[in-house]
Every structure is written in C-alpha cells, then in structure tokens.
Amino acid sequence: xxxxxxxxxxxxxxxxxxxxxxxxxxxxxxxxxxxxxxxxxxxxxxxxxxxxxxxxxxxxxxxxxxxxxxxxxxxxxxxxxxxxxxxxxxxxxxxxxxxxxxxxxxxxxxxxxxxxxxxxxxxxxxxxxxxxxxxxxxxxxxxxxxxxxxxxxxxxxxxxxxxxxxxxxxxxxxxxxxxxxxxxxxxxxxxxxxxxxxxxxxxxxxxxxxxxxxxxxxxxxxxxxxxxxxxxxxxxxxxxxxxxxxxxxxxxxxxxxxxxxxxxxxxxxxxxxxxxxxxxxxxxxxxxxxxxxxxxxxxxxxxxxxxxxxxxxxxxxxxxxxxxxxxxxxxxxxxxxxxxxxxxxxxxxxxxxxxxxxxxxxxxxxxxxxxxxxxxxxxxxxxxxxxxxxxxxxxxxxxxxxxxxxxxxxxxxxxxxxxxxxxxxxxxxxxxxxxxxxxxxxxxxxxxxxxxxxxxxxxxxxxxxxxxxxxxxxxxxx
Length: 478
Prior knowledge:
Helix content is 75%, strand content 0%. Among the domains are: 1-84, no CATH class; 91-326, no CATH class.
C-alpha cells in the first residue's frame, strides 16, 4: 500500500513539475521589446502557461490550481491582491454558478427524469425515435444545466444503460451493438451540439463570452441562442441519422422502451407541487433570458439570481442544497482565476501583441481563408486537451484577437469559436467530463469512437459553417 501511495505521489509531483518547468522556461525567455513598457505582462503569461498545463495534467484539482495561481500572482507582485481577486466579482461567473443551482432543482424534484420518460413514451417505439426522445429531453434541460456531465451523464445516460439491459445489449457478452452502442454514442455526439446551442449549457461557454467581452464583443444569452438555433437544430437531426446508417443498431423496434416509460411515469404519479414550481421558475428564467435585456433591462446574471431566489423562497431548494452544490463553488474558484488572468493579459497588452504578430502572418490570405485556418486549428487542437475550460482559457482569446485583426467580423468570429468550444468535445473519449461516463461501459470501442468522431466533426463543421453562414447572413452578423 505504501508503494502505491508513493507512486501516486511521485506522479502528482511529476505533473506539477512539468507545469512549473514550462512556466519557468517562458519566464526565462527574453521579453519581447513590444512589451517592455508592461513587464508584468510577460510574467503573467509565464504563470498563465503554468496554470493551463497544470489544468491539463491535473496534479491537483482545478480549484487548487486556481488558488495557487492567484497566490503566486499576488506574492510575486505581478498583480495587486485586489486585481488578483477581481475575477470573483465578474457577473458572468455568477451566472454559471447560479445555473448550477437551477440545474439542481431539476434533479432534486425529479423533473429532469420525468421529462426524459415523457419523450420516451411518445417517441420510443423505434430505436431511432428512442434516440431522438433522449436528445429532446436533453435539449429541454440544456438551457438551465451548465454541466453536461450532470445532464447527459447523470440523468440521460443511466436511462440508456437501463434500456440497454432490457434489450439484452451489453458490452461484456458481445451484444453491445443491439442498441447500446448506437444510443449512447448518438446522445453523446448530440449533447456537445446542445452545449453549443445555449450559453448556459456548458460551463466554459460563459468564459468565452467574458473573454470576448474583454475584446469588445458583447454576446447576450438570446443573441447566442438565436444564432445557434438553425445550425444546431440541423445537427441534432442529421447526426443520429448518419450514425443510424454507418453505426446502426441491430434492434430497430423498441416497443419495450415506451412501455417502460409509461410504467415509470405511473410510478412517479402526477406532477408534484415542487415539480410544477420548478417548471414555473424555468419558464420565468427563459422568458427573462430572452426578453429581459430589451423589455426590462435585466441582464442574464440578474435573471439567474432571480431564478435562484425564487427557488429558495418557494422551497424548491433550501440553503443546504446551495451549500452542498460543490460543482458550483468549485467552478466559482477556477473560473474567477482564469477570467482574471485572461482579462489582465488583454489589459497589459499581451493579447494585442500576439494578435499583431500572428495577424500579420495570415492577413495576406484574406479574412475568410485566415479565419478558416484559425477555426480548424482551434477545433482540432482539442485532441491535446482533456478539458474544454483549459482549451478556451489557453487559446480562445488569442485566436479571437487574431481573427478580428485580419478583418473577420467580430461577432461572427466570437460566436463561431465559442460554438467550436463545445462541438470539439466530441472528438475523443476524454475531451469533456461526460465522455468517460459514456465510454466507460465499453459500448463503443476506442477505434470506433475516434473514427466516427472525426467523421462527425467534419459533418458538424460543414453544417455550422455552411448552414450557419446563411443563417448568420440573414441575422446580419457578417
């Protein structure tokens, strides 16, 4: 046992050493002359690189990495304590924190599970229809659940696993392709599409919004959702159809699924009072997210606070639930550190310097070709990341600045890169928190996962850039 503990400790120290070494190497490189008037920018960049590598290698939890980064910035006087802690006052961070609490209401009241079974009852008689029923259930919950791990992995996947057992479709006895492989992989590959469709459907989305805001591009909740609606909906419809052809289930008819759903709904009984209250809160939140900014001058974060407060007042949640929502408080800590560093890199001139250098290299190609290259580099570099948050933190701001510098319409550039920040999560079986949940049972082999994922990545890019471009033209984004 001691040997195992020592090996575990040595591994953590090795991972931490990689991050520290990377930061020291950056720090020791001579500072560019263009940054001479802001020497803190280069030191901040060195600490930022070390932080991102630590998030990727994960020697300690993300929150711990964030606290260490804030402490180092303050202790080395790279930034003042006030500036180092300024991320905790960022409104967008509190939007995502409140969204975690709202998602807890879906889980606690059982409303999320009921929604899934209601769709199953109506669409679940055939395997393809069953697949769409699970996707639509995920879609209903997505706007208010910023954790795709909790939403797809915690609510939808357990239902898939139970259904697979009913169909006699298991990995261990070679029957996975009866239904389990198709259902699980289709839901996973469409869940990252749903993450792209709503600002509050994935934790890293508001981080991208905040970074874009620092570069002068203000993205609203409704603006994000409207621009994503058409390409997102096309993706949701097309991806399962493609998988149904190239990765088909052996079982085509699933009348048992509809019967299971009816049984489960009978066991749950009629809508309970707290479920009705949760529906009311959800409708209120969506209304204010869509219409609040124009009609009432209420922003997205204020809306989320109104939703949380209402849930506490009507006792859908209590304060013990708020205190126990560890994911929300963990997100607050690492989010605050990353947003603060991204803001300060921009304020100290580092992002501008970087965009000038890279922009000068690709500008002769024209903004369309240059942005195409930027987008593809950003998308497929996710093979090297196990966290969308780390990826957004490391590359989104710099590449967005370059895209704007070469003439890409700012809102178009910000949204496309933000959408890619969710879509690329489908590339690997480690690219997002929900991926190990779907990959773990063995319904899809690694070879199948990567091969199908690359094919679907091309499909998604074509849909979002092709269909999306037409839609965005109508919206006046370019």
